[in-house]
C-alpha cells in the first residue's frame, strides 16, 4: 500500500540531504584561521595568553605552582603598563596534562582571537598533541616546561625557553663525578626520564664514572626495594636518581629508612613537596636546577622573590619561576613588536634581550635553528637545613 | 635474594589486605567493585587528616575511619548498587567505576592534589631482619590481615548474619522466602567491605609513607589482580594471591628492572588464568558462572532507524565539518575516533556477550603500526591505516588465543591483562617503538595527495571511516555471522549444543573489534603526530567499554551517541572547571541508574 506520509518524509530526507551537500560545497574545510582572515581579527583592549595546564588530575600539584607564577606575572605586566597599552589577561584551560584533552581543547584556543600565544602543558606527550594545531594556526606555542629535545621539532611556532636535558644532565654527571667513581643509577620510565638518562650516561662515560647498577621505575610504583636492594648491594660510591619529586623522595626514603644505605645521594626535585616527603633524608642531596630564590644575584629576580613572598608567603621554586618568566618573556617581546599572534612570533625571532630570571640572570635570546634558549646555564642546588640553596663547588 | 623475597612478602601483605575486601564483596554480591581502591584512598586520606591536622592516635583514627567508610559503603549500596539489583552485573560494575571517579576527584578537591607524608601512627622502621628494616606498622598489618581473614571466614561460616550473607549470594530469591531480609544483608556486606577498605587504607598509607588522594585507582587495580590470582570470591585466596603477587613482582623486578613492572604484574595474571582459571584457591565451580556476560539488560534491543533515516544522519554528519569551528571539529575528531574503536566492540561485547576491558591494547598496536610504517618505511597513509587495523587484529588474536578456553568474567579480566601486556611490550620493544621516548613527527594523514592539516579535514576523514565502520558492523549484524554472534551471546550452552564453536566465534568477533580499534589508533597517531605508551592506559580501555554501555551494548549507533556524551561531556562541563571530572562521574552513575539498557536501546 502506498503510504503518502511515509513517502513524503523519505523524499524530504533525501532532498534535504542533497540540499545540505550542495550548500556545504560553498563553505570550506580551511578552518577558523582561513575564515578569520576573511572576517578580520577581534579588536578589544585586552589581549590574552592561553594556558593549557593540569588544574586537576595526577599532575595538579604542578598546575598549582604554575598558576602562582602566571598570576603574579600578569599582575606585574599590567602594573607596568600592559602590552602596548592593552591589558594582558590569562585564559586557563584544564587538560589534566592528558593528550586526549589537549588535542580536543587546542582548537578552542586557536579560535579565540583574543589569545595571542599559548603556554603549557606540563608533560611533553600532552604538549606535543596540541603543538601541531597551534603550529598550523600560526599561534606561538611556548612550551616553557618542555625540556624534551624533540619538543620544538613540530614547527617554527613551537618554542621553549627550558634548558635542554642535554645541558642539565651534563652538569649533573659532572658534579656526581667529583665525588664518586662507581655509581648506581635509577630513573623514571617515561619520555623525560629515558632521554635524561641517555644524556647522563654519555657524560658519565666521558668522565670515566662506572655505572655499576641501573634500572628504570614506573611513575606509579609504590615499592622500589626490588631495584634498590641490588643498587645498594653493588656497593656504589653514590646513588643517583633521575626523576621527579614524589618518586625522588620514595627512592631516598627507601634507601635510608628501609635499606640502611648511608652513602651520598643525588636526586630529588626543587619543590616543597619533595622536601616535605623526604624530610631529613633529603639533607645533602645535590640536584641541577635553573633558579635559587636565596642564591640569585640578579636584581629583577630578587624583586620577583620579594613579590612572590608578599603574595604567597613562601619562596618560589623552579616551576614557579619558569611559569612567571614565560609570561614576562611573551609580554616583553609583544611590547617590542605588537601584541598580536604575528607580533609574538616575530618578537621571538628578532628580540635579543629577553629578560632572564633563571641561572645567572640578565637577558637571553633564542637560537633560531632549534627555537631553544642557548645561553641559560644550569646551577647546582643542595639541601641544607631543609631548604634548597645554591651550591657552589 | 632473601632480602628481596622478604621485601616482596611485606608488599604482598599490603595487596592481600585490600584484596580481602574486594573478594568479600565479589563473593557475596557478585559485583566486581572498582570503587574499592577509591574507598581505600578515602580511609587513607581521612587518617592522614586526623593524624596530621588533629594529631589523633591510631585507635581513635581507626574508629573514625570505620564510621566514615562504613557510611560511604552504605550510601553507595543504597543509592547506586541496590537499585541495579536484578540487572546484569556489568551495570553495577560500571556504576562502581563512576562512584570511584566521584570519590577520587572528591578527595582531590577536599584535600588538595599534593603527594604528602603519611603520619607515623605506628612506628614504621624500628625493626630489622634480612637486611631490611620494617616497622611495628608492618607487623600489625600482617596480623590484621590474618585476623580479618579468619574473622570473616568464621563470621560467614558460623555467624547468623554471615550465613544469611552467604545464602543471599547463592540465591537471593530463596533467601527471601526463608525470611532473610535480603536488603539489609546486602547493606551489611557492603558496609563490611567498605570498612575493610578504609582500615586497609591506614596500613597502605603507613607502608607507602608518601600518599596522594589519586592513589586509589592503582591500589584497586593491583588488588583486583591479586584477588583474581588467589581466586575471586575466596577470602583465603585473596591473602594467598596478594602474597604471591608481592613475591613474584619483587623477584621479577629485581631481575628485569621496574620498567617491566606492568609486564610482570599482568603477565602473572594471564599465566595464572591460563594455567588455573579459577585462581589458586578458587573453587572450580566458579568458572561456570558468568556474571559479567550477556547484554547490559537481558533483552535490551537497539533502536534501529529506517534506511532513509540512516542516510540523512550520515549526510548530516558529513556536512558538519563544513560548518563547525576549529574547536567543535577538534572535539569531533576525538568523538569520532573513540566511536570507531567502540563500534567494533558492540559485536564482541554486545552481540557475542563478552565484556572486553583491554581495548587500549589493539588501539595502541594500530597507532604504533601506522606511525612506524609511515615514518620509517614511508608507506602512504591509506595503506598504513589499513595495515594498522590488520596488525592490531592479528596481534590481539594471537595474544588472546589462550584466553577463549576460559569463560565468563575470567575472560573479561584476562582482557585487562592482554591490553596491559600489549602496551608493556610496546614500551619494552625499544629498537622498534622507541619505548617511553615515544614517536614524534608522525606525518598528517595524506589522502590521494591531499594533506589533511586542518581540524575540519581530519574530522571529515574520521567521519568517513566511522561511517564505513558503522556500515560494515551493521551488515555483519544482519548477516548469518551476526546471528551466530547473537546466539553465542544469548546462550552459550545452547549454541554449543547446536555445534557452534563459541570460543572460535568470540575470537572472530574480537578480531573484528580489534581491527576497528587499530584504525582508530592510526587516525589518532596521525592527528597528534606524537604517541607514547602513556596515552594508551587502562582508563582508555574503560572509556571505550563505557561508551558502548552508555549507548546500548549491541547498538552500533548507540556507540556513536555514547562517544558524543563521554568524550564531549568533559568538554561541555568546562563551565565547572574544579568539579569537571567529578560531575562527569555523577553523570555516568545517573545514566546507568535511569537508563540501564543504554541510551540508544529500548527495553525488551
Describe this protein with a few key phrases:
heterodimer; A: 393 residues; alpha/beta; Rossmann fold; 2 domains; five-stranded parallel β-sheet; four-stranded parallel β-sheet; 13 helices; 18% strand; B: 604 residues; mainly alpha; ABC transporter involved in vitamin B12 uptake, BtuC; two-stranded antiparallel ribbon; two-stranded antiparallel sheet; 24 helices; 10 strands
Précis, in short:
Chain B: It is found in: Cell membrane. The complex is a heterodimer of chains A (393) and B (604). With 393 residues, chain A is of the alpha/beta class.
Task: Describe this entry's structure for a reader.
The complex is a heterodimer of chains A (393) and B (604). With 393 residues, chain A is α/β, with parallel strands linked by helices. Chain A has two domains: 46-163 and 298-376, Response regulator (Rossmann fold); 166-289, 3-Layer(aba) Sandwich (Rossmann fold), CATH 3.40.50.2300. Chain A has 13 helices and 16 strands. Chain A has helices at residues 4-24, 32-39, 60-79, 99-111, 124-137, 165-179, 191-207, 225-233, 245-258, 272-278, 299-312, 318-336, 341-350, and strands at 46-53, 87-94, 115-120, 140-142, 158-159, 182-188, 210-217, 238-242, 265-266, 286-289, 354-355, 363-364, 366-367, 372-373, 379-384, 387-391. In chain A, β8, α9 and β9 (265-266) form a beta-alpha-beta unit. The longest helix of chain A is centred in the N-terminal third of the chain and has 21 residues, at 4-24. Chain A is globular, with a radius of gyration of 25 Å. With 604 residues, chain B is mainly alpha-helical. Helix content of chain B is 71%, strand content 4%. Chain B has 24 helices and ten strands. Chain B has helices at 2-29, 36-53, 58-81, 89-111, 136-158, 160-170, 172-177, 182-208, 216-230, 235-256, 261-275, 307-323, 326-351, 360-376, 381-400, 409-428, 430-433, 455-478, 480-490, 492-497, 502-528, 538-551, 556-572, 580-594, and strands at 116-117, 127-129, 132-134, 210-211, 301-302, 439-440, 446-447, 450-451, 530-531, 601-602. In chain B, strands 1-4 form a two-stranded antiparallel ribbon. In chain B, α4 (89-111) runs antiparallel to α24 (580-594) and α13 (326-351) runs antiparallel to α21 (502-528). Chain B is globular. The N and C termini of chain B lie far apart (60 Å).
